[in-house]
Each structure stands twice: as C-alpha cells, then as structure tokens.
Amino acid sequence: MAVESGTSTERAAPPRPRGRNVRWAVISAVTVLTITSYLDRGNLSVAAPVIRDDLGFSATQMGLVLSAFVWPYAIMNLPSGWAIDRFGPRIIMTVAAVVWSIAGAATGLARSVASFLGLRVLLGMSEAPLFPGALKATDEWFPDHEKARATSVYIAATQVGLAIAPPITTALLIAVDWELMFVLVGALGLLGVACWWYAYRHPDRHPRVSPEELAYIKENQRSAEAADESSAQLGKQWVKLFKYSTIWWMIIGGFCLQYVFWFYITWLPSYLESAQHFSISAAGLLSALPYIAGGIAVVIGGRFSDLLVRRGMRPMDARRRTIAAGSLLTALALAATAASTGPAMAMTLLTIGMFTYSLTTASYWALASDVAETSTMVGSIGSIQNFGGFLGGAFAPIATGIIVDRFGGFVPALIVAAALLLVSVVSYGLLARKKLPV
Q: Is residue 197 part of a domain?
C-alpha cells in the first residue's frame, strides 16, 4: 500500500470514547433528513411515464421537467455553502427542509409543464443546503480518520432513498394516484426536520457530549485558531477559492460524476421500460437494485478511504484516488451496458455500474473537507464542488431526453456518460493534487 511517507506503517488511531457517542446521533439525524429529501427528489422519475401519459408531455418536455430541480440546486449551492459557514448548519438546514417538504407535497397539484417547473425549481433551491450542511457538521464532529466513514452513512442514505422510492412510489401509484403520492411523500420530510432540530448542536455547546468524546473529536482536527482567524474575512476567502486550480478540477470532475448519477435517477425507469421492455411495475421494482448495491458500496468506499488515511496516506490523496478508481470502473460498466444483448445483462451491468460509482461518493464529500488547511471554508468548498456536480446533473436529464428523441435509443446516452467518467478519472486522479492554503 503506497503512503505519503513512502512506508506502510499504520497510523495509530486514538481510542474511541466509551459510552454514549453523540456524534453518531448527529449522523443519524442527517441520515433521516437525507432519506426524506431523496424520496422527494427521486419520486418524479418513477412517476414520469404515468404523468407523460396523463398530461401528454413529450420525452423532451419530461426531460426539461426532470432537469428543473437540478439547475437551481446547482446555483444555490454557492450561497448555501457561504451561509452554512457563516451562520452554521442548524437553522439553515431546518428552514430548507421545511420548504422542500412543502414543495414536494405541492407537486401533486401540478397540471402543466410550467407548474411542474416552478415547484421543481423551489425543491432544488431548498435542498441545496443539505450536503454542505452535512459536510460542515461532519467536519465539526469527527476526527480525520473517521470522516469518510461518517460521510458514507448519510451518503448511503441517498441510495436508500433512491432504492425505496421506486417500490414505494410504484405502490402508491397503483393504490391511489400520482397526485396523492407526491403529497404523502412530501409530508414525510417533516419527520427529518424534527430529528435534525433535536439532535444537532456544535460539539462545544452540545449538552450531551462527554469530555472524552469531545477530546476524541478534536484529535487531529485542524487548528481552531487558524480557522477563527480566517473566518473574519470569510467573504474574501470565498472569492479567492476560485483562483486555485484544484477547485476547478474538482468542479469539472464533479460535473462528470453527477451527470452519471442523474442519468440513473431520472431515466433508469424509462430505460428499463422502453429499451428493455419491462412493465411499469417490474421497472419500478428493478430500479431499486442499483441503489441497494450502491448503498453497500458507499460504506465500503468510505471505510477503504479511511483505511488509507490510517495507513499513512495524506487524506486528500486517499479521497481523490478512491474517486478516480471508482470512476474508471463505472465507465467500463456503462460502456458494457451500451453493448449488452439482453435485459438481464443490461440490468446486471447497470447495477454493477452504480456499485462502482458509489465507491466514490463518501470520498467526494470527504475531499472537500480535507483539501483545505483550516475548517473555516469546508461548507463553501463542498458547495462549490457540488455546484459543478449539479451542473452536470442539470444537463443529464435534458441531454438524455434529446439524445433519445433524436437518435432513437439509449445507447448513445450510455456512451456519453462513460466518456464523461473518463474525464473525472483525469480530473481527480491526476490534476486535483494541490492542497488549498485557506
């Protein structure tokens, strides 16, 4: 195993505190919030074929509606990260979660392309603070050698949300109708709000954290004095981030990664129905398989990345190399899917592709925490990378819809996704190498 010092000596981790570990209760609250948010953002893709039949939308119109969430989400990542760094995650994420729950429920009232667009825009804007806030909370509550593992828990929850959305949404579509389905799913968001508000405080001010756990949390964390000094000039520091090449390679790499993820989220059920000729009920159930595999892979990838750190590799290198390896494997899986000769083979390859893709996701977020010298700009760095990521996510639904309409199938769309992953390999594996002096 290669390490930064050129040796294979394993880094000794401090002993974990005994008894109650509040930091994992914080991660549990983030996890519940994440699952409810992904039910809101993922249910439209499952209902899309029914909505198209009911309201007469074309594939291009549906692609526009599916992408409407992602554009405002991408743009709002920028001010969201700054707000999280400036005001803290507790209030910002609480308000955001209330708004996205209302927007998700109100989607059941939509009847036109314009009304769907407006509500999906609101949903995207309000969900933007979720992961910058979760990243900030993780950075505050965990030492370096546990960050990717902690991140993998709530990132795995994204896969859980996507895995349970198809069967839940399909069952509701059959039992009631798509309108009521949106209302019921949106109402679940309030559960996540309650869990988050109750569980989260900064560790220095949390009434239930023990002195032993607080000391463990601060082990190997970056200097608080350095962070406090730079926080006085937070606005200037935020603008200066864009002068570093590492930030731009993270934006480009994130664009390519999230393009692929949103190809899955928005078009997988339609691909299974139209290209592989599954029924709507079968497509809804089979759509869960890649996300189940992905949820397992997120945890594996996070633990592997932390293992590299414990064995002496620089945290930033452990994260970016894990991302590059997972991206390469996923590119191969999607290229093979394009050449597949039957439904069973295609479904298997797509599941493998989501598994290998998900090996990258905990490191994707942990990298944003580890790339800087201090903890002051963690939310901002994470949100800037995710801004680039969700630009890719915004292009994926509409680009796929146009490709399907103009070329008559999904094979070219799969090839485009595989090619973009190779760009991600280069961006993270070779070019995003320099640590940020902020």
A: yes
**CA separation for the pair 122, 116 (Å, rounded):** 10
**Where are the alpha helices (H) located in 232-314, listed in sequence order?**
234-240, 245-274, 280-286, 288-310
3-state helix, strand and coil shares in percent for the chain, rounded to the nearest 5: 80, 0, 20
Report pTM.
0.71
Q: Which residues pair with 372 in a beta bridge?
A: 436
Please, which residues bridge with residue 436 across strands? 372
**Nearest-5° Cα angle at 221, 217 to 224:** 105
Q: Which two tokens stand for residue 214?
A: 């607080």
**C-alpha to C-alpha distance for 115 and 131, rounded to whole angstroms:** 27
Of residues 81, 62, 72, 141, the one with CA closest to residue 100: 72
CB contact at 8 A, 172 and 181: yes
CB 41 within 8 A of CB 103: no
Q: Which domain holds residue 381?
A: 22-201+234-431
Instruction: For residue 357, list its beta bridge partners.
Output: none
CA dist., res. 75 & res. 126, Å (int): 11
The encoded tokens of residue 180 equal 């009521």
The more confidently predicted of residues 41 and 120 is 120
- CATH number, domain of 285, equals 1.20.1250.20
Q: How many domains does the chain have?
A: 1
Cα separation of 429 and 298, whole Å?
Answer: 19
Distance CA 39, CA 157 (A): 10
Distance, CA of 106 to CA of 89 (rounded, Å)? 26
How far, in Å, CA of 97 to CA of 190, rounded?
Answer: 7
Residue 226 domain-assigned (yes or no): no
- Pair of tokens at residue 337: 């899917």
How many Å is the maximal CA-CA distance in the chain? 63
Separation of alpha carbons 122 and 113, rounded Å: 14
Q: Is residue 266 part of a domain?
A: yes
Q: What is the pLDDT of residues 9-56, one digit of tens each?
A: 444 555 666 666 888 889 989 988 888 888 887 788 778 888 887 887
Q: Does residue 17 lie in a domain region?
A: no
Report how far residue 396's alpha carbon sits from residue 402's, in angstroms, rounded to the nearest whole number: 10
The region, left, alpha or beta by phi > 0 then psi within -120 to 50, assigned to residue 56 is left
